[in-house]
Amino acid sequence: MILPIFLIFSLLTSTSNAAVQDFCVADLTGPDTPTGFVCKKPAAVTVDDFVFSGLGAGGNTSNIIKAAVTPAFADKFAGVNGLGISMARLDLAVGGVVPMHTHPGGSEVLIVVSGSICAGFISSDNKVYFKSLKKGDIMVFPRGLLHFQINAGGTSALAFVSFSSERPGLQILDFALFANDLPSEIIEKTTFLDDAQVKKLKGVLGGTG
Questions:
Q1: Residue stretches of the annotated binding site for oxalate
Q2: List the disulfide bonds (predicted).
């Protein structure tokens, strides 16, 4: 009899605690810690904290991947802090690609606004799921799995993505391997690439070693 009473009390307590604070707008003037930003004092919160206008303009796709991702995460959009949601804009020029990458902190939903995008992910048992998406199509990418987006048409493509976290994180596989000082011999042993290929990729992406 004690256990059910304890569970009911715990549920009521957690519910009442959750209702104490409606939101936790990030104080972006404070430190960015591993546990996130501290909350602004309620008296300092304004409607502008809940509005983000940064996704209206296209990103700069004049780069090696011919793509631009414009995020609206907690470090730029204070109002999503603590809410477990965020968004980003994806611009892909002709030939553009977002290489294999993961978001350790959240799942992703992508909707194509214009153009055509080939998108897919690889499950933990190495099964591949990919499809060419057109305007209005939506695809989901489960948390932590490697996935990619490629412009699949002859015109620029635009998509918006949402995440199940205000800080989904990002690790791009190519940059993790070839854009740092990880010794080439280690990369060669772990990827089965030869020395010339590794050195070439390091040269392209700015890595050393």
A1: 103, 108
A2: 24-39
Q: What is the pLDDT of residues 171-190, one digit of tens each?
A: 999 999 999 999 999 999 99
Vertex 59 angle, CA 75 and 139, to 5°: 80
d(CA 65, CA 148): 12
More confident residue, 129 or 15: 129
* DSSP codes of every residue in 163-201: ESSS----EEHHHHHHSS---HHHHHHHH---HHHHHHH
Q: Tell how strand 147-151 and strand 157-163 pair up.
A: unpaired
Question: How many residues in total does the chain contain?
Answer: 209
pLDDT digits (tens, 9 = 90+) for 52-109: 999 999 999 999 999 999 999 999 999 999 999 999 999 999 999 999 999 999 999 9
pLDDT band at 3 (very low <50, low <70, confident <90, very high): very low
Domain ranges of the chain: 47-169, 176-205
pLDDT at 12 over 60: no
Give me the CATH topology for the region 47-169.
Jelly Rolls (2.60.120)
CA distances from 20 to 17, 24, 41, 49 (A): 5, 11, 14, 20
Is the entire prediction scored with pTM above 0.90? no
* Max Cα distance, the chain (Å): 70
| Residue numbering of the annotated binding site for Mn(2+) | 101, 103, 108, 147
Q: Two tokens at 193?
A: 């690439």
